[in-house]
Design goal:
Blueprint lengths: L1 H36 L3 E4 L2 E4 L10 H20 L18
Antiparallel strand pairs: 1-2
């Protein structure tokens, strides 16, 4: 019985990956259509699709250097034991390569 749970999980995981790939393909098509039509949104029977802009930030070297110092400080605290951590159970699934 327990083996079935593992198999069901693996099958569902594969289906989710496939659905996400299909969703990404459709998303690209919808974005292209909205951009070409100069529409900011389209209302359909299933909902509203809106074209929006997301910001991608680029930082100066000064900020990037601060980020590196911050990462180094975090690593130092982890290695010295000053930083604390909490362990929680987690599931990792690796599908076999077909």
């Amino acid at each position: 019985m327990l083996t079935k749970v593992y198999e069901d999980y693996a099958v569902l995981d594969a289906k989710i990956k496939e659905l996400n790939n299909q969703k990404d393909t459709l998303k690209t098509q919808i974005l292209e259509e909205l951009i070409e039509s100069d529409d900011k949104s389209i209302i359909t029977a299933v909902g509203k699709f809106t074209l929006s802009n997301l910001k991608t930030w680029t930082y100066t070297n000064k900020v990037l250097e601060l980020e590196e110092k911050f990462k180094a400080s975090k690593a130092k605290e982890q290695s010295t034991g000053d930083a604390t951590f909490e362990e929680k159970p987690s599931l990792r699934f690796t599908a076999i390569k077909l």
